[in-house]
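Before a colleague's protein record goes any further, I have to sign it off. Would you go through it and say whether the fold makes sense for this chain? Take the sequence as given and treat only the C-alpha cells as open to question. The record follows directly below this note.
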Amino acid sequence: MWRVLATLPEEFLSRLENVVVVIEDEPPEHMADTMGLYEGVPLTERSLEDAILPDRITLFKGPIERVCCTQEDIEAEVRLTVLHEVGHFFGLEEAQLE
C-alpha cells in the first residue's frame, strides 16, 4: 500500500497534512462492500477556529481483495480507492469523484 501512496501526484501529497492512512481487514457490517472510508473535516469546510484532529483514510483489505484477481489488480484498486478518499479530503462529493 505504501508503494501505491508514493505514486500519488505531488500536488496531492504536498497538501495531505495531518492525515492518517490505515488498513483494516473488514468494514463495519452496515458498509459490507466499502473499500475505503474518509473520516474528518474536508479542507473546504475548515475554519481557523477548528481544533483539527488528524483526518483518517481507512482501506478495507477484504472487499478490495474480493474484487481483485492479481496483485496488480489490488495495487490498481488501492490507488483508485486512495484517490477517491483523498478527493473527499479536498472536499469533493461522490458525484464529482465519479
Observations:
- Strands lie at 19-24, 36-39, 55-60.
- The chain is about 40% helix and 15% strand.
